[in-house]
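Hi Y.,

Following your request, here is the sequence exactly as I used it, all 226 residues.
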Amino acid sequence: MSEPPRQLPLALPVEAACGRDDYVVGVANRAAFDLVTAVRWPSDVLLLIGPEGAGKSHLAAVFAAEHGAPTVAAAELPGHDPLALVAAGAVVVEDAGEDGTGGEGERALFHLLNAARQAGARLLITARRPLAGWGLALPDLASRLRAATPVELGLPDDGLLDALLAKLFADRQTTVDPAVVAYLARRMERSFAAAGRLVEALDREALAAKGPITRALAARVLVRGF
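Below is the corresponding structure, written out as tokens. Let me know if you'd prefer a different format.
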């Protein structure tokens, strides 16, 4: 039997829905969601920690939209005026603690923390690793960050994976039978990053085959890897 015709899928942009109501909440991320969206924080600096694809940027986008906060990558902080960043009363710094920022990046973050404290502004910092794994060389920065409030995003349970996969497919305007979604959630690697890669691979395969995402297709992609 010949295989169905395949076409080269176009790499079309995917616009993820990133509002508060679009964030998928479960046991693994409830504490982070509640804290980031709270009216008051235990301290004015919040460290949002979690692996790649855990939803840090989505939560940060929710916070930024609700508070009019500018968002800047940690590696780009040296090119920004800290006083201008805190003028809105809230700031988001993404991907802190990553290699390559160096001493200049640490000093820029330290100046931003000082500016935020003087202005009474809130600072949301996202990172993949807890503070102890950042390898900070500037003692004053390490001391200031230890006073921040940390909150971690954990590994998703089955229910959260079901909801996350459904959202990722919806972002691509792809309809998938809930039974297929449940099949995937119970057999895939239990991580947010893996969910993103799996949905992308399945969408690409379905487009190439000019057909729907079925359980058979899901099984093939899971066995082959993605």
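The first helix runs from residue 30 to 36.

Thanks again,
Q.
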